[in-house]
Structures are given as C-alpha cells and as structure tokens.
Specification:
The protein is mainly α. Helix content is 64%, strand content 0%. It has one domain. The longest helix is centred in the middle third of the chain and has 22 residues.
Length: 228
C-alpha cells in the first residue's frame, strides 16, 4: 500500500487562510520540490502572487474564489452533478467512508475537497482511493480549473452583475492574484497525475457545469422573490 499522507498536507491549501497560511503553503512547496517538481512549479507561482503579508486580502481572494459570488466551488459532488440526485448518493457514500475512517469533516460536507483529500490520506483500501482519484477528484479538478478561464469567468461575472447589480470588490492585488487559486488546483492535479498514471486517459462524460448551475440558482431565486 502506497503512502498517501501528503494529501492531508495538501488539503490545507484549500482551507480558509489565516496568518499562518503562507507558512503552510511554503511547507507544502518544500515537500513538492522533492517529490513532485511540476506541482511545485505551479505552487511556486501561487506563492509569488499570494498577498502573504495581508491576511484580509488572502481571505477575500479565497472567498471570491470559492464562497460568495464564487468562481468555483470546493464541493466536488456539486461540481460534477450539480443538484442532481447523484450528488446525494455520493454524499451518502462519502459520509459512510468518513465515519468508518474516523475522518472529521468539521462544518463542511463530505464532498468538500479538503475533506476528501484527508480521507484519501487515511484510507487503507487502495481500490477505493483509486476510485476517488479517477472518478471524483480528478474530473472535478479539471472542471474547477476550467472555471478560472477568462471567458467563463466573464460569463459568471455577467450573471452575478445581472442578479446582484454589482460584483463584490476584489482586493487591491496584482491582476494575476485574482485567479491565483487556479494555480493551487493545477498543482494538486499534477500530484494526482503522478500518483495515478491513468488519470488523463480516463475522461468522464461532463455531468455538470458550474456556470450553468449559477444561472439555474439565480433563476430560482428570482422566481421565489417575484411578487405573486
């Protein structure tokens, strides 16, 4: 059985930043330097754009990326299936595995990326780890990375402007820093590619589109708020 403990280390990349966050990223980069040079290259760029001396700016970038008026979401089941019943099945199955492995999900759902990465670090069933990598984490990461592309980003922003009338103000940082989490996601994907060699030869049918899901959610909200 291979050692997958590095997924617990990498999971902290996708946690809400605090003052210690830059040092954790540096520790991850130091590990990747020795084992995963391609992943280390992307994470080095991430560090270069990270406003490490400004906790508020780091938090605002995280929120803008994954939370309020988000570019993407860290909930893998939602990335792949949206609100389809298949996500409910995935959550139920993942919950069972988290409980069996005594992997605490905290306040997040079972398909939240850091929770799934930590689960991969403690599972002893290699076949299940491979299933998670090939069928869930890998395909979802490709979707999430794609959401940071300029065309899709502008379409999401248009949807948010239409519904909310304005966009949440982005912190005053380098232009490249606005989408810096794309580099973190790419870094993780490079780790997966090295650990699971068939990951790029097993493309799955696209099941969901986060941009489309945003549009559906906005339409539902508008209908719910419309006067009868």
């Amino acid at each position: 059985m291979e050692n997958r403990l590095h997924y617990r280390l990498i999971a902290s990349l996708f946690e809400y930043p605090d003052a210690a966050y830059p040092e954790r990223v540096r520790q991850i980069k130091a590990f990747l330097d020795g084992e995963y040079p391609k992943a280390a290259e992307d994470l080095g760029k991430f560090l270069g754009f990270l406003p490490a001396d400004d906790v508020v700016a780091m938090q605002e970038l995280f929120t803008r990326s994954f939370d309020v008026q988000a570019i993407a979401t860290l909930d893998l089941g939602y990335v792949l299936f949206g609100d389809d019943y298949k996500r409910g099945e995935l959550l139920a199955n993942l919950n069972r595995e988290h409980v069996a492995a005594k992997n605490d999900c905290g306040t997040e759902l079972a398909d939240h990326l850091p929770n799934v990465l930590r689960l991969m670090s403690v599972l002893r069933d290699e076949e299940l780890i491979e299933d998670l990598a090939y069928a869930i984490v890998g395909p979802a990461l490709l979707e999430m990375i794609g959401e940071f592309d300029s065309d899709r980003l502008e379409k999401k922003n248009e949807s948010y402007r239409k519904h909310y009338k304005t966009l949440i103000e982005t912190p005053a940082v380098q232009v490249e820093a606005v989408t810096l989490y794309k580099l973190a996601l790419q870094s993780l994907y490079e780790v997966l590619k090295q650990d699971f060699s068939r990951i790029e030869t097993m493309p799955l049918k696209r099941e969901s589109d986060f941009l489309g899901s945003i549009g559906v959610e906005i339409e539902i909200e508008e209908r719910a708020s419309a006067p009868n």
